[in-house]
Amino acid sequence: MRPAELDRVTVAEAADRYVELVRARTVTGALSPSTAEVYARDVATLVELAGEATVLDDLTGADVDAILLAFARRPDGRRAAGRTGSGSGARGGGQSAASQARFRRSISALFKHAALAGWVQLNPMTGSAVTAKERGGLRPQRRALTREQAQGLIGAARAVPDVAPAGKRRDQRTELRDAVIVLLLATVGPRVSELVRANVEDFFTNDGVRYWRIFGKGGRTRDVPLPEDVARVLQEYLSRGRPAVQDKALLLSWRGRRLARGDVQAVIDRVQARVDPDQRRSVTPHGLRHTTATHLLADAVDMDAVRRVLGHSDLSTLGRYRDELPGELEVAMRAHPLLRGEPGGPRESG
C-alpha cells in the first residue's frame, strides 16, 4: 500500500513545482539564472518524454532508462547539419556525451527532491541500469545478448532461404554473406574494424581445422579456429555467395565492393528482422563482441583462451566485456565442483 502522505502528482505538476523552487534559488544566489534555466529546460524535456499526464510515482527504473536513451538519440539542434564536432560529439547526430550526462544530473536532482517531498515512494533513479560512460555518453549497462537471444539471431542467420526474395536477382542475393557476418561476430567476437578488413586469404585450414588470421590493434595478429558450423557457412559463401571479382576482401557488396563499417549494423538489423519477436533484441557489432566474451566465460572457458580469441593483451580488459547472465549464480552453485559425487550433491555423468 502507498503511504497516506504520498502526493500522487503528475510529471507535469512535479516539474512545475520543482522549476519554481529552482528559480527561487536564484534570488538567494544559490544558483545562477543560466543554471536554473538549464534545469528548467531539462525538466521540460523529461515531461515531454515521460508524458505530462503520467503519475511521477508510477515511473520505474526501466522507464528512466527509456527516457535517458530516448534523450540520447534526440538530434542536437545546436550542431549545424554537416558540421563535425571534436571528440565529445555524439555519433549519428544525437546528443553529445556532455549533454547526456547533464540531462541525467538534472532529472536525478528532480527525483531526489521528489523523494524528500513525498511525490515518490522510491527514487526510480536507483533502479536505472543506464550509466554514464567516461566517454561516449549513455549506454545500457547490459550489452550482451542472452543465450536465447543469441541463438535466435544465429538461427535466423543460418536459415538461408533457397528462393530469392522478391525483386532480387540471383547476383544480388546477400543472405550467405550476411550469415557469415553474424556468425563471425557472434561466435568469434572480432572488432568491427577487424571484420571489414578481413581478406579471403586470411582464412586457412590446418589439420582439418579452419582458422581466421585476424589482424588486430597495434599490428598484432591472432589465429582463431572457427566452429565447424561457422566454417561450413563460410565455405558455402566463398563457393557460391561471394561475387566473382578481383577484390581480395572477404565481405563484398553485391556490386563487388568491400563493405564499410557502417554496413555491418544494417546487416545485423536485417537478420534480426527474421528472429522470433520473443527472442529478438537490438544489438550492435560491439554488443556481439560482448556476447562472445560473456558466454565463453560463463561456459567456464579458460580466461586466457577467451583473451586470445578477442585479441586483448591483458586479462584485466576482459572485465569490461563480461556481462552478468540471469540465473548464472544459481547454476554455478547447483553444480559446485566441491560437491560433485557427494551424497545429496550433483552427480557427475559417466
State the main characteristics:
5 strands, mainly alpha, 3-stranded antiparallel sheet, single chain, 350 residues, 2 domains, elongated, hpI Integrase, Chain A, two-stranded antiparallel ribbon, DNA polymerase, domain 1, 43% helix
Q: Any overview of this molecule?
A:
This protein is mainly alpha-helical and 350 residues long. The chain folds into 2 domains: 119 residues, DNA polymerase, domain 1 (Orthogonal Bundle); 188 residues, hpI Integrase, Chain A (Orthogonal Bundle). The chain is 43% helix and 6% strand. A 3-stranded antiparallel sheet has the order 3-4-5. A hairpin with a 5-residue loop joins strand 1 and strand 2. Helix 2 crosses helix 3 and helix 2 crosses helix 4. The protein is elongated.
Strand and helix map with partners:
Elements: H1 11-24, H2 33-50, H3 61-73, H4 97-117, E1 130-132, E2 138-140, H5 147-158, H6 175-187, H7 192-197, E3 203-206, E4 209-215, E5 221-225, H8 228-241, H9 261-272, H10 285-298, H11 303-310, H12 328-334
Antiparallel strand pairs: 1-2, 3-4, 4-5
Tell me the Rg in angstroms: 25 Å
Give me the CATH superfamily of the largest domain: Intergrase catalytic core
**Secondary-structure element string:** HHHHEEHHHEEEHHHHH
Q: Give the biggest sheet.
A: 3 strands, antiparallel
Quote the distance from N terminus to C terminus. 54 Å
Structural class: mainly alpha
- The CATH C-level class name of the largest domain: Mainly Alpha
Q: What's the number of extended β-strand segments?
A: 5
Q: What is the CATH architecture term of the largest domain?
A: Orthogonal Bundle
Uncertain ranges: 80-91, 133-141
Rounded mean pLDDT score: 80
Order of strands, main sheet, comes to 3-4-5
Helix content: 40-55%
**Dominant shape:** elongated
